[in-house]
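To the wet lab folks,

You asked to see what we're planning to order before we commit. Fair enough. Below is the target structure as tokens, and below that is the sequence we designed to fit it. If anything looks off to you, flag it before the synthesis order goes out.
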């Protein structure tokens, strides 16, 4: 929280404080860098290791898993980012430091080495954690309590986010797909540097927001040490925390180190939230806190579905969408780059953002239902219905071998309308309900909920790829060479690779024929599960697959040891049956639709009691009389 309230006569431009536009352009360039990298990240991971613009050759499942962890951590570290802003830096300085770290992270991604790839991702995670929650809180600090312009201000700020996202998906996407993935990553770093320059130039318009609290105020603010210290004196909260910790340790043992750390982190967050609730001094604060927790649940559900955009839907655009145009366009020709579809969400937000915000504002002034909970639940329903079009795309792909582009366009349109109803409102809603003492921390928890939603999206994406059958490569390099493109030196450089085959049962035996050489690939591999081959045959028989009407399967191989000689190969692989995967994706899209609509409908059924628990947090909003306006030509503006 800033230590100075925004003055009543602060200078304005187009009806809003000038500081809003500084934060607008800072966030626009930061989002340009983030969404530009996001648009090409999964595509880079799954692109073949061969050709002039080689990727990493990961499977879709592996890429979606990394995408889920990365996008989750980008937001989860907002909690320590909010704490550092409150206790050490102040929000304004935290944004600056985060921006500098982001420039370094995106710049390192331009280096074509795996150490640089993981280091860059780590720095981006740290940078966003410092910048994202604090710049959003600064936007709220520009407005006085009860100012109805706050929601519109957040929407304008949100349009800045999406202007950057729109431009980056086109520019970084084109550079990444057509010139070089690492050139695209480097371009994202240049954009973040521009955002830093804007932020530094506009400091004179941000003097009353984002300042570090005084020592007395910091001592009065939230203390995690005190919260966790008091946990030992609170039997109920302590028992709940111990149970969750035990479950987390079990998860660590069962699912591995990463999941264990995530569960332990979530246990600490739950313990913290329990103690914050206990620390609240009035029933009004506690009731509002409960509503805020429910809003966090809506946030997780929303982003768990919505963030299929950068993962599963991104791969769908690359592999299963007919992107050929009947005409040619400058630079791209007649094939639309897969990353361009990432710009649709941002474009629709720019086109419809103000329209949707005005719709809700007018509805509220007419005393019609327009509470934040209502908007958020409605947004979840609209967004969920967008997956109906993705289910239709799956059906068309299964029938024709490719889905039309308009299915993706329609899905992104409904996702965007849902997002405009939910996401910017949620940001504003948190600032209204959060206890003042814990404001920045709750904003951090909001972004952590967003991150958890991103992880849920990754898990759903992994599930949609089905359960592949594992194989081990047993062929020598000489036996394998005819199935590979000799020009790409795959084996010499220990690259990952895949072999596309047609599969069918014949006389009770499994057949897998390479589409290029028309030779069997089964002599090259050994199934890790001795029943793996027969299980595939049973599946193919159930699906009435024949030699005349075969299924398509991809044998995808990853190198396990780069130190072996050319003749010694250590590759493991998986068999992915395209038609089976498509069926699983269809079920995933339908499942997302059903769950989101039912969950949000349940929230709407509880709307009246939930509104009572807010104790009129939104009822004091009103139109603020116009204050002194700034004209672009005024001398003091510069």
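Sequence we intend to order:
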């Amino acid at each position: 929280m800033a230590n100075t309230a925004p003055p009543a006569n602060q200078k304005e431009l187009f009806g809003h404080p000038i500081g809003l536009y500084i934060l607008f352009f800072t966030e626009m360039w930061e989002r340009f860098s983030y969404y530009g990298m996001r648009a090409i990240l999964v595509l880079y991971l799954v692109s073949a290791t061969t050709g002039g613009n080689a990727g990493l050759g990961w499977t879709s499942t592996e890429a979606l898993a990394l995408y889920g962890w990365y996008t989750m951590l980008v937001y989860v570290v907002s909690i320590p980012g909010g704490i550092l802003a409150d206790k050490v830096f102040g929000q304004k300085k935290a944004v600056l430091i985060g921006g500098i770290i982001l420039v370094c992270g995106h710049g390192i991604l331009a280096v074509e080495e795996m150490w640089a790839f993981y280091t860059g991702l780590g720095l981006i995670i740290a940078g966003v954690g410092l910048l994202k929650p604090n710049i959003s809180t600064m936007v709220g600090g520009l407005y006085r309590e009860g100012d109805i312009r706050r929601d519109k201000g957040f929407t304008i700020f949100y349009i800045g986010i999406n202007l950057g996202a729109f431009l980056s998906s086109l520019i970084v996407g084109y550079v990444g797909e057509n010139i070089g993935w690492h050139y695209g990553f480097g371009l994202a770093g240049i954009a973040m540097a521009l955002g830093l320059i804007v932020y530094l130039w506009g400091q004179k318009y941000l003097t009353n927001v984002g300042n570090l609290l005084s020592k007395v105020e910091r001592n009065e603010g939230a203390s995690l040490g005190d919260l966790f210290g008091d946990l030992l004196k609170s039997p109920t909260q302590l028992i709940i925390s111990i149970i969750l910790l035990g479950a987390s340790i079990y998860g660590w043992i069962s699912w591995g180190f990463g999941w264990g750390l995530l569960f332990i982190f979530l246990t600490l967050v739950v313990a913290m939230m329990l103690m914050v609730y206990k620390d609240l001094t009035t029933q009004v604060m506690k009731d509002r806190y409960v509503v805020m927790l429910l809003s966090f649940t809506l946030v997780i559900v929303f982003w768990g579905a919505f963030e299929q955009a950068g993962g599963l839907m991104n791969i769908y655009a690359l592999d299963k969408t007919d992107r050929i145009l009947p005409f040619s366009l400058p630079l791209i020709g007649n094939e639309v780059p897969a990353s361009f579809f990432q710009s649709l969400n941002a474009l629709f937000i720019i086109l419809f953002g103000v329209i949707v915000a005005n719709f809700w504002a007018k509805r509220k002034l007419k005393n019609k239902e327009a509470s934040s909970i209502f908007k958020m639940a409605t947004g979840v329903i609209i967004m969920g219905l967008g997956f109906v079009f993705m289910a239709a795309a799956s059906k068309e792909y299964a029938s024709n071998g490719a889905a039309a582009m308009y299915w993706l366009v329609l899905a992104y349109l409904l996702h965007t309308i849902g997002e405009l109803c939910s996401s910017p409102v949620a940001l504003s809603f948190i600032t209204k309900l959060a206890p003042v003492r814990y404001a920045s921390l709750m904003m951090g928890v909001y972004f952590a909920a967003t991150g958890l939603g991103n992880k849920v999206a990754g898990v759903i994406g992994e599930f949609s790829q089905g359960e592949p059958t594992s194989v081990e490569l047993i062929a020598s390099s000489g036996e394998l060479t005819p199935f590979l493109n000799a020009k790409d030196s795959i084996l010499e450089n220990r690259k990952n690779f895949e072999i596309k085959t047609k599969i069918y049962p014949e006389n009770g035996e499994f057949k897998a024929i390479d589409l290029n050489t028309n030779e069997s690939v089964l002599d090259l591999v050994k199934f890790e599960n001795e029943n793996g081959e027969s299980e595939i045959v049973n599946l193919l028989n159930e699906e009435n697959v024949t030699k005349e009407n075969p299924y398509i399967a991809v044998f995808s191989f990853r190198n396990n040891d780069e130190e072996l000689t050319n003749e010694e190969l250590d590759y493991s692989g998986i068999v992915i049956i395209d038609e089976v995967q498509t069926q699983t994706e269809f079920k995933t899209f339908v499942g997302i639709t059903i769950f989101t609509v039912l969950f949000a409908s349940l929230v709407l059924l509880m709307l009246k009691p939930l509104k009572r628990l807010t104790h009129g947090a939104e009822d004091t909003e009103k139109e603020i009389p116009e204050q002194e306006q700034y004209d672009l030509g005024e001398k003091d503006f510069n």
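Structural context that might help your review: The CA atoms of residues 90 and 212 lie 4 Å apart. The longest helix spans residues 149-179.

Thanks,
Computational group
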